[in-house]
């Protein structure tokens, strides 16, 4: 009898433990439970998302500002692109010995001479001495047939002539870099006439300058 009572009490105690355990589990998983862990996880994820988005926006702003700054620098007066080139100049009529500023190039016509050794009657070899100083960053290469022109009083072009150029030294040729200057002679085959001749220096980007002279 005593043994039976002990077994009943033991069973009752075990049942009480089981009931207590089920009640605790129900409290933990019930609808009224407040748990900081999921909230913390959600809060952490939510916090990371705005940070990433903010970083993306910040990156976009940085690229936009950089692009805008680069565009502004290029277009601005002090930017890397520099100021836009001015319009072409058209200078003249200049006297022999005067200098002209054609863009960054300073051009001077010093003198004109004739040598009567031309192969055709009524024509002469016309020699022009010039100096060009390059004040720009781009090199300047002498192009006697395209950038140096002589016109007779009849307003006809006198062609550049190698035989005439060979009669004087040095010949005006070569490439001038920034800060360099060069002097030399250019020769033309011209009709010998009374009246005013012109020598014109032309640069395709900067413009032109024209000098007037007569044959002695």
TrEMBL record:
Keywords: Signal. Residues 29-87 are annotated as: Disordered. InterPro entries: DUF4352, Immunoprotect_excell_Ig-like. Residues 95-208 form the DUF4352 domain. Pfam families: DUF4352. The keyword Signal applies. Residues 52-84 have a biased composition (Gly residues). Gene3D superfamilies: 2.60.40.1240. Residues 36-51 have a biased composition (Low complexity). Residues 1-26 form the signal peptide. This is DUF4352 domain-containing protein.
